[in-house]
Amino acid sequence: MSKSKSKPKPQRVLITAPHAYTLSRSDNVGDATSAASARALAHALHDAGVDVTVMVAPSDIHRSRLDRNRARASAASDPWVQSVRTEIDARTLLLDVHSFPFLERHYLLTASTPAVQTNTAPLVESLQTQAGWDVRQGSRINHIINDLSAKWAVLLETPDATSITRPWLADTVRCVKDFLDD
Ligand SMILES: [Zn+2]
User: Fold this and answer.
1) 47: Cβ–Cβ under 8 A, 6 or more apart, which residues?
2) 0.90 surpassed by pTM
3) Which of 86, 99, 106, 143 could form a disulfide with 33 if both were Cys (CB 3.0 to 4.6 A apart)?
4) 12-181, what's its fold?
5) Whole-number Å distance between alpha carbons of 104 and 161
6) pLDDT per position as a tens digit, 83-104
């Protein structure tokens, strides 16, 4: 099959970490290590020759006051969320990185937007079978992967417990690289 007849694929990667705020481990239920993992994933993709941008939200406000991953007016008008929206174009694969304590296994959330889910399905399958990600259906509340116009998007939930070794990293890089149009 000629390249022009194959399905369009992304040509670059945008990695986001909307929950970078950390006050203390006990207070911050969720994203103690997402910023570090987002940067590690970006470095590894860059080393693999991928065109990648990483955008970590400023650690300026508690998530209970502003959740940048929720479809509310406060998030939509947030300057960081707006800059993420601006960064996304028709060639962009969006990887929205989060972390969670007491999690044994890394899992991903699929976009609930039907077109995004369909477009991203081949990547989700390879992440599941080749990089060990458990696959869960996401919901509309996940603002970043659903509402910012990315054609391909997935939310990656990484365990704080393995944030140093990141057993998912190398295989994930291979899956993402294979999914891109080269
Ligand atoms: Zn999060």
Assistant:
1) none
2) yes
3) 99
4) Aminopeptidase (3.40.630)
5) 7
6) 999 999 999 999 999 998 888 8
